[in-house]
Amino acid sequence: MPETPDSLSAIERLYRIGDPRNTWQWREGDPDYVAEFGLCPAHIPALIEIARQWADRGEWPKDDTLYAPVHAWRALGQLGAVEAVEPLLAMQNSLDEVGDDWYLEEFHDVFGLIGPAAVPAMAAYLTDGSNSEFGRVSSANGLCEIGKRHPETHQQVVELLATQLARREPDVYSLNGLLVGYLVDLKAVESAEVIERAFAAGVVDETICGDWPEIRQELAVSELGLVPERPKPDRGLGPLRFFDQPLSTGHLKQNLQRKKDKAKRKQQQKARKRNRKRR
Fold first, then answer.
1. Distance (Å, whole) CA 256 – CA 23
2. How far apart are alpha carbons 152 and 184 in whole angstroms?
3. CB contact set of 253 (below 8 Å; sequence gap of 6+)
4. For an engineered disulfide with 132, which of 32, 96, 173, 207 has Cβ 3.0 to 4.6 Å away?
C-alpha cells in the first residue's frame, strides 16, 4: 500500500515539506508546524537530532529532503523547546566556518520564539570571545528578538547587550556595530553613554549602524561630547534626502536596517555559492 500523508509519522512528514523558502511566514505561525504535523514535546529530542544534521551531515541529499533540518529548528522554536538552545548554539561555529547563511537568517527567530528561558545560554555564548564573530552576532540578534517578543525581558536584554558593547572588544567591529543597531531597535535610551563611548573608542563599524550623530538623533538623547565632530563632506547636493523627502529619524532607522543587511550579505557571499551547490 502506498504511503499517504496521514500514514506518515510527524517526523517523517518533515522530510516531505520541501523548500523552506516557500514557507517564510513561519515566524508568524504560518505554517503552524505544531498543529499541522501533530508535534508535541515528546518529539523534541528527534527534532534536535534532525536539526543537527544541517551541520553534521556528510553527503548532502540531492532532493528537497535536505531541508528537513530547517523545518525541524523552526518547529523547535514554535514548541518553545529550551532544550534546543544549547545544541543550536553549538552548531553556529561550524556553520560559520563553511559560510552558511541559513542560521544567520533564522536562528534568532527560533530563539525569540523559545523566549526567556533561552537567555542565560545565549548570553554566555555572546560573551565568549572564542566563538566566531557572526555566531556571536546570531546570539545577540536572538537576544534582541526575545526582548521584542517578550517585554518582560526587555530590560534584561538591554543590559546584556550594553554590557557586551561596554567591553569595547577590538577586532569584532561588525559585532559591535550590530550591537548598537540592536540597542537602537530596542529603543534603549539608557544605553546612550555606552554607545557613545564605543564610538569614541573606535570599535564600531559605522557602515553597519551609522555614525554617532545618527544614532544620537535616532535615540533622541544628549551626548557627553566624547566623539570628535567630523564635518560631512560638502558635495553640493543640498540636504540629504530619501526618495525626495528629508531624512527623518524614521528614515534613519530604515537606513540602519539596510546597512545591517548589507553587512550580512557581504559576509554571506561565499555561503550562497556553497549553498547553491547543496541545493
1. 27
2. 18
3. 184, 218
4. 96
